[in-house]
Structure formats: C-alpha cells, structure tokens
Amino acid sequence: MTRKKESGVLLENRRARYEYFLSDFLVAGLVLKGTEIKSLRKHDAGITDAYIYVRDGEAFVANMHIAPYKEGNIFNVDHLRDRKLLLNKKELRRLANALKDGGLTCVPTKVFLSHGYAKMEIALAKGKKLHDKRATLKKEIAEREANAFRQGRRGTFDE
Question: 115-128 burial string, b = 16+ CB within 10 Å, else e?
Fold first, then answer.
C-alpha cells in the first residue's frame, strides 16, 4: 500500500511568531488516534495555546485542541489530551537540555501531512517584550506597503 504525497499545511501558529523569538526548528512525527487524524484533515484543530514538554525521555505536546470527529462516536478521545511526539534520541536530548536551562520554551509552529503521516514543526522560543512586538508590527506594515507599492497599488492599508 502506497501513501499519498500530501504536503499541505493543515495548521499554522502565527501567534507564536508574534509572541516569541523562534529558533532551532525541528520536524517531529505526531502520534494520533484514527478519529483525530480525520478531524485534523478537516482542519478542526488549533495549536495557538499549545506547548511542548519533555518527560521521561519522551516529548509531548500539551493543549493542542483537536475537535472530536463528528462520526467518531465511541472512538473519539479527549480533545485536549497530551500527544506524543516522535523524535530521535539526539533531538530529544538537545530539546531537553535547552528547556532545562530555563528562559526558553518549545512551541509548535505548523502541523502538516507528509506522505499521509501527521508531522509537526516545533521551535525553541524566547518571549518577546512589548517593545519587540511593536517593532515587529511596524516592520510587517512597512513590508506590506512596500509590496503594494511595487505591485502598482499606491494606497495604504489604513484608508
């Protein structure tokens, strides 16, 4: 049996880019039940409040919401349960050491399908201060206006 070559992004955590400085991106497999993957394919999930922790040499994602599948009846599981991430030993050790030192957290940035399997892109994150968030917003607005100017639209976005 061959797997489909799906690679579309199902979920993206845009809030993480606003709230944190992101570094050290990793891709991890996601252990899901049957009804969870069906619900995920329907984009009935959210990762904005999710975070990753390491316990007993294994990585888990907490607060990832996957809505119960409508036709799942008795096979549905808790929508906020902790889900295991599949990483190799070297990646787990590096992640655990980074989280142990303090000052850093690990957040999911994307969930996507790769050859039929659910994958999650995770990143180490350091919190931004308020002035950093303002600078990021100013930079994004300036880039948008520059792109609009290049494409021939002379107006700004606040009209």
Answer: eeebbbbbbbbeeb
* Pair of tokens at residue 37: 């993957």
Copy the structure tokens of residue 52: 């990753």
Q: How far apart are CA 100 and CA 84, in angstroms?
A: 19
Q: Map tokens 């308020």 to a residue.
A: 130
User: What digits encode the pLDDT tens for the residues 37-60?
Assistant: 888 888 888 999 999 999 999 999
Residue owning tokens 């904005």: 48
Question: Quick one: 69 exposed, middle or buried, by C-beta within 10 A (0-12, 13-18, 19+)?
Answer: buried
Is beta strand 51-55 parallel, antiparallel or unpaired with respect to 58-62? antiparallel
Is pTM beyond 0.85? Reply is no
